[in-house]
Design brief:
The chain is mostly helical and 83 residues long. Helices cover 73% and strands 0% of the residues.
């Protein structure tokens, strides 16, 4: 289930509230997804570089041509959401 940025933000706030209630200490919001912006950019760059290889692996698979096309389409759609 893909999460929107708003959903992730709400989830992070819920977690922070529950941790604050239990421990009495509020964690940093920057730990929201355990990655800082620069780390996320580096991960996305690596994913972008790997995308052709992922598509190649799908083409080599034993899936039907119909399923291969569906997986490649899904991969590209999901990847498009990131950037």
């Amino acid at each position: 289930m893909p999460y929107s940025e708003e959903n992730l933000h709400e989830l992070a706030e819920q977690i922070i509230k529950s941790q604050t209630t239990v421990t009495g200490v509020q964690p940093k919001l920057s730990l929201h997804l355990a990655s800082e912006e620069k780390q996320q950019e580096n991960i996305f760059k690596k994913m972008e570089k790997a995308l052709p290889k992922w598509c190649e692996f799908i083409e080599w698979s034993f899936l039907s041509e119909e399923m291969k096309a569906a997986y490649v389409k899904l991969l590209r759609e999901r990847f498009g959401r990131l950037g």
